[in-house]
Amino acid sequence: MTPQKPYLIRAIYEWLLDNNQTPYLLVNAALDGVQVPLEFINDGKIVLNIDPSAVRNYHADNDWISFSARFSGKAMELFIPINSIQSIYGKEN
Predict the structure, then answer these.
(1) Of 46, 50, 66, 80, whose Cβ has the fewest other Cβ atoms within 10 Å?
(2) Residue 27 is inside which H or E element, if any?
(3) What's the CA gap between 27 and 21, in Å, rounded?
(4) Which residues are within 8 A (CB) of 62 and not within 5 positions of it... i.e. 6 or more apart?
(5) How many whole angstroms separate alpha carbon 93 and alpha carbon 84?
(6) Which element (helix H / strand E) includes 77?
(7) pLDDT band at 64, cuts 50/70/90?
(8) How confident is the model at residue 93 (pLDDT cuts 50, 70, 90)?
(9) 18-43 per-position pLDDT tens digit
């Protein structure tokens, strides 16, 4: 049986967008496979805005979330294993 976590993340992401909320991910950046800008990691974690207006080429499947985003004006490709995601929530909440 496949894990529920990736399905729940995708469902909450869609629900947040449907309700005009800004989706954020809390990621454990210390886990293997996480590719995020190192200078924005704080205490081994990073918070990422994944609103469609903030990212490009957003893709979420059962193993990864990937997208392109700008950090301090520099474009970067991010790869986030599903097991590294600690939370998805709306900024406004």
Answers:
(1) 66
(2) strand 23-28
(3) 19
(4) 2, 3, 6, 7, 82
(5) 22
(6) strand 74-81
(7) very high
(8) confident
(9) 999 999 999 999 999 999 999 999 99
φ/ψ of 62, rounded to 5, equals -75, -10
Which of 3, 6, 2, 76 has its CA nearest to residue 46? Answer: 76
Cβ contacts of 20 within 8 Å, gap of 6 or more: none
In angstroms, the CA 10 to CA 44 distance is 24
- Tell me the β-bridge partners of 12: none
Q: Is 32 exposed, middle or buried (0-12, 13-18, 19+ CB in 10 A)?
A: exposed
Closest C-alpha among 88, 86, 87, 78 to residue 33: 78
Neighbours of 16 (CB within 10 A): 21
Both structure tokens of 50: 């994944």
